[in-house]
Amino acid sequence: MDRYRLTARRAGFHFSALALALLGLPLVASAQPAAEHVNVVGQAASIDKSLKEQRRSDSVKSVVSADGVAQLPDENVAEAVQRLPGVSVERDQGEGRFVSVRGLGPDLNSVSINGTVIPSPNADSRAVALDVLPAELVQSLSVVKTLTPDMDANSLGGTVEVESLSAFDHDGLFYTLSGEGSHDDNTDEHSPKLSGAFSQRFSLGGGQDNFGVALAGTWGERDFGSDNVETGGAWDFTDGARLEEAEQRDYRITRERSGLGINVDYRPDDYSSYYLRTLYSRFKDSETRNAAGLEFADAQAAGTLGDAEGWRELKEREETQTIQSYVFGGERLLGAWTLAGQAGYSRSGERTPGHIAGATFEGDDDFTDAGFFSSRKPVLTAGSAFYDPAAFVLDEVEWAEQDTTDTEKNIKLDLARDYELSGQAAQVKFGGKLSRRDKDNDTEVWTYEDFDTFGITDDELLLSNYLKGRVDYGLGAFGPGISGKAVEALLDRLDAGNFYNEEESRIGDFSISEDINAAYLMNSVDIDDLRLIAGVRYEGTRQRSKGTGLRDGVFESTDNQNDYHHWLPGLHARYQLDKNTQLRAAWTNSVVRPTFEQIAPGFLIDGDEAAFGNPDLKPLESSNIDLGIEHYLGRAGVVSAFVFYKDIDNFVYNTDLAGTGAWVAFDEAATFANGDSAKLYGLELAWSQKFDWLPAPWNGVLVGANATFSRSDASISGFDAASGLQRKRDIDLPFQSDSVGNLMLGWENDQLSLRLSANYKSDALYEVASISEPFRDTRVDDQLFVDFSARYNLTPELQLSFEAQNLTDEHYYTYTGSRRYNAQYEEYGPSYKLGLTLSHF
User: Fold this and answer.
1) Cut 0.85: pTM above it
2) Most CB within 10 Å of its CB: which of 87, 548, 591, 649?
3) Where are the domains of the chain?
4) Which CATH superfamily is domain 3-218+228-840 in?
5) Contacts of 513 (CB under 8 A, 6+ apart)
């Protein structure tokens, strides 16, 4: 064993002994280090591969490889990437969906697949819903937190980079085929899933293994559900805390994911390479939501009874989101120059065909003896009439359909030249990128009401004609469910043209184009153990939006244009203290455009009330400083610490402009505005290590832990109706959690692999209330998810796996002002998976 490796092992022993003592694990020391053994596959191998890429990177970067994804009990890319330092996810129905980095919300980060930016399938946001991407299609995931000038500058927290499988990732033939079944504890449903991947190299022309083909595919269907109760913040705080209304919701969902990726690589000689990367992913959600609610005649305290209006409602829809990406590129060495080019086309979409957006049955009369227990998780109570279908009559049905597309086309060119600068190795690099993005949204709405006018009798509108069994609801008594087919049968008897809702159908439609022209120049130089990168990036943006507004019953076309330009300098430094330790520092600048909801061109003005987007919003600008140290502890081991600071201008928040400027005579003018500035600063810690130098069985132990602690300071301004004055107040940045952390305890040998993972994030601001009512701000509560996975090698190529998610039965909870006052509570229960995987590589 060479001296370097022995030194690294001894350093690792001292650090690990302390860590094991803190964890309360027994430690048996050995005078002689155990003989080194490298697994071909396994947790340690995948962690080690990821750390090597992180170590070589010019940016502050965290990586998880495909083997690492396979080791995690994760349904999709969002859940896999949350294991990295500083990363948390926003969940939908218990599954990870949107990614937050270093406490900054999903819209402030970007996602790229194979080097091209991925647009969002959602109508309102820029955030890419990563639950659309199955984890099986991914070769590696990384989060880049400091951007070099040759990268798109469109993220404040970080850029999630997704790389799909290449034949050159493996030597020779590679294939894997997996099948699994899952069980959802909340609904007692079972679900299947199949996935596979293949790659092989071929000899083309006079070359040897110079042409590669890789493909990966997956299909899965998951039946699950959740139980929900929410108030929407409808609390009256004038005399204690009294509830105005609440609604119980039962969700039943069938979620189908499918995806296919086909990638081709050609390397005709030592000087050139070409590639084609393709990816198609489809996410289909079929959701049925039954709801039952009460609106109290007078706001009530918990445990009291009174009169209330009641309703029951059905929402039933099928929503399909797709992401497709095609990237063609190559690289050519031309003497001292390297020429690289890439053309990309990405298209995301969300289509929701005609569906019941809401079928509402109102109670014939007020219900007596109505009330609730518990302000945190309200349990609604009412007399027997509330559970009698004959007491409810169909009042309104909203039928809707929506189609959203987001297309991004780009072409970029990079030139780099290696040279010597005063005897030191250096490289100059410059290039440019043209990006053209188009976002379109089309919504159609029909509102069916006043049924008696069209020959429907009162008896035909009774809820008893539309029943579909009883709802299996775990948070209290619920009553009957509603049949979507019965509601649709009623609508089929009516002429849809009589119910077309032109207002709802037109003011939400928009077309937004975004043209970005970018260029950069950067230079890197290696001075002994110091590597410096300095450069500047220019991004010019032309944004145009078209839509429709409604002013006091009259429709108006809108056409807005907003142009802006940014020069974004940057400086990166990496200094090698010794063979295993390096310091990093970076000063970067970035820019993020507002969301499509915020710049939407539509508006609604009705008397003294108005709601509208703001196409003239300025983009968010951030100046960022990062400082850190990384110490590598041999195989699969690292300990690191980073501090970061972000000075953000023009952050966007929702506001009410009533009483000011053109809106001085209005009672409400809801829109979006730019804040002056905000600060974000924090500390990011990470540790990972395999204890292979301990005697058996402790040499199979792996531990990984990371934690990010951050703080944000921001202020907003608005009109205070009570005082008649403009006021300011301080807030946190929305979605920013002060603490985010992961803990992984693992053990493996050649045959068995065990892993227990925990992911935690603290509470965060979810929605900002009016300037004068900070006690009405909505916050999302902290969450701790614990998952477990086990894998057993039946043969060298056949593996049995078991995974358990959400072992702590964690719920989702938002509250108004204080944790005592519910805005929304939702629980999912744990789920379990059993799988079999055949692999060859």
Assistant:
1) yes
2) 87
3) 3-218+228-840
4) TonB-dependent receptor, beta-barrel domain (2.40.170.20)
5) 436, 437, 438, 439, 543, 544, 545
